[in-house]
Amino acid sequence: MLAVFKRELRSYFTGVVGYVFMVVFLVVAAAVFCFTTLFSMSADVTTYFTVMLLFSAIILPLLTMKSFSEERKLKTEQLILTAPVSLTGMVIGKFLAAYVMFASALVFTSLYFLLLIPYAITFRVAVLFGNIIALLLVGAAFISIGLFVSSLTENQLSAAIGTIAIILGFLVVGLLSSLIPSNYVARYILDSVSIFSRFSAFTAGYFDFSAIIFYISLSALFVYLTVRIYDRRRYN
Amino acid sequence: MNKFKKSFDRMVRSRNFSPTIVTALIIAAFLISNALIYMVYAYTRSSSSTVEQEDLSISDAAKEVLDEAKSAGKKITVTFCMSEADIQNHDRGSFVYRTAKYFENKYSPNDDFITLRFANIYTFEYDDPVIENGVRQRFDPTAYQKVKRTYASGSNDKEEYDEYVISTSTVIFECDVFGIAGELVKTNTRVVSSLGGAYADFFTLDGSNNITSYNGEEYFTAMLYWVLADAHDVAYFTIGHGENPSANLYTALICAGYYVDELNLRKSNVPDNAGLVVICNPKTDFESSTNDDFPSEIARLADYADKGGNFYVVIDPVAKKLPAIERFAAEEFGISIKADADGNRFMVKDLNNSISVSGFTGFTLAAEYADTELGALIKDKLSEYGENIVVNDTAALNCDESLGASAILQSSSSSGLDVGGRDASAPGPHTLVAYSERENTYNESAKMVFVPSIYLTANDVMVSNRYANKDFMYSIFEVFCDEGTMPYGIDCVAMQEERLEDLTFGTAMLYTSILMAIPVAVAAGGAAIILRRKNR
């Protein structure tokens, strides 16, 4: 797993993809930060992280689209399937490489809020940490979805679009749940699988342990599904 | 773990369990377990808040004055017209209650210098029985519906009273003054009736009546100062010209120890007890034509000036011109608004030092203290309380030194003048707030402070602990009062906590440039690395 992780991480920085991801992420994060805080004269972290959540829904599929689809396209898939590394280790290695890229960019850009401390009436560090942790967990979920969809196709663009479609599906679920009155069971069921509804608790400053379990289990589920795809492919 | 994995794999690969079914079961388990966990969470709300709680406390700002009053043997009673249990549960009253308890504990832990009482306005009983001279005292709310005024100047022959509505959110401040022999000489009283809403006087509210900050410590301190003083000046707001005084200016005058009244110059002269005449943002001009039988408004103001009167004038420079009142300020006190040959006023603009409170327009500036006697005096006084005084949409002023006019506040050396959207001068400081003092033939000084901006007492600057606008107002009133105790340097508790303050446009642009340079550096570094690898 470690070898796969190192190889994947190195490939991000030997090719163009990693740098493009970093540059685009840093540009968008800086622009969002400046407009939502400096030029709005507000130390509110919620708006920034909500916008970054929506941006992550678009940028992360572009990061993960080549993870498995490129292997299929270049016909190097057989090497993976016959390599002396477990499928689970391989998938987790790729997952961790993409996640490290995303997490390092997110944590670095979150440091921008330190600039506001001398000017803020009150700066809630705990709310900032809550939002960072929430977005890290959401990012993990998006990356695992991206890996899963990437394993289904050899076309990178299809992988990216498929991932965005699934993430948007989760968004629609959240919108549908808001149309249902709060005392209906259906509302609870839809909210329970809505990525964005769960995220809003963190933006309000609440440490929602059930949401943490949800995001971790969602990430684990899609990693498992990716392993199952390759397991089936190996024996077919 | 490996044992579990092997059994799981064996089970999956057995004929009875196809991988598809297992996968479906896992997905179902994920959905059901998360739904159950979420429903349990929604009912029990077992999450913990990451938001920190704000804590009230009081500063040492009032220490010297209250210690002196205590040494003089004065005793202060603060009576809440609500039971102690009720006020502790009141959403606004609990703030005032806590402030009162902090004062009692800080200045009167073991004596009766400050006593808190809680009374019922319907049963006329106190929470704790009050026994004086062996007689149980009952609370009489009607005794506070009319409170006699004591003026610092002018005639006190005619008794005048302030009338109050006593409600459950009324707070009554009383100070007993004792003579040399220990006999009670008099009781000074101030009633805070908060007509704008429960305990509204202790809070700053926005246009929609929402609380923007809690100013309880400052207001409480000001009320203690009020009852410790024996007499007060009156500040008269002129009416009849569409004046629209801000609630913050009104409150600042009360906290500075003034009675506040209205003055209709069309009907009467400026009263003898006037300590200050406030002309606040008039929309129409004052009458200037006069005859012997009926003096004009300007004539009445000039008469007051001749007697050594004080003026605080606020003019909105973007509104209609007011030739009569502006001529009065120019001819009597040497202060005028700068204008071009066509009469268009010069507005002060400084984009580099603009502080965005309502947007980076360049017209919202941090003012500097002028290098004049009064400017230096106020700067020295306020140096420990705050730095920037923020003004917005301000015209530039001319000061005629021969008539005693000088600047108090000025713009920075990088500021310029704007007229009709075009730059009208080279960069340089311009007078934003001016002061003038002139003596009449009786050696009495008439004073005027002229402010060509309605923003000096706006909500968002007055509730700030970072800007010094509020303390600047107190320093101005202190100039008029000669003697007076001002509640300087007391912070408020901002309810809208997410604002940024004191961030100039120049600083925001610098940060933006730095943040945008980072991805450029990453892109350049990445390109260099990739090119080097290709060239190997």
Task: Describe what this molecule looks like in 3D.
- The complex is a heterodimer of chains A (236) and B (536).
- Chain A is mainly alpha-helical.
- Chain A is 79% helix and 1% strand.
- Chain A has one domain.
- Chain A is built from eleven helices and one strand.
- The two termini of chain A are 24 Å apart.
- The mean pLDDT of chain A is 84.
- Chain B folds into two domains: 2-44; 63-340 and 395-411 and 429-494, no CATH class.
- The model of chain B is unreliable at 46-53 (pLDDT under 50).
- Chain B is an alpha+beta fold and 536 residues long.
- In chain B, the strands form seven sheets. Chain B has a nine-stranded mixed β-sheet with strand order 13-12-14-15-25-24-21-18-19, sandwiched between helices. A four-stranded mixed β-sheet of chain B has the order 3-2-8-9, with helices on one face.
- Helices cover 32% and strands 22% of the residues of chain B.
- Chain B has helices at 2-13, 19-44, 63-71, 84-89, 93-107, 216-228, 247-255, 297-306, 323-333, 373-382, 459-462, 469-481, 505-535, and strands at 48-49, 75-80, 114-118, 130-132, 135-137, 146-148, 161-163, 171-178, 184-192, 203-205, 211-214, 234-238, 259-263, 274-280, 310-314, 335-337, 347-349, 364-369, 389-392, 397-399, 405-410, 416-419, 422-423, 431-439, 445-451, 493-494.
- β1 (206-207) of chain A pairs antiparallel with β1 (48-49) of chain B.
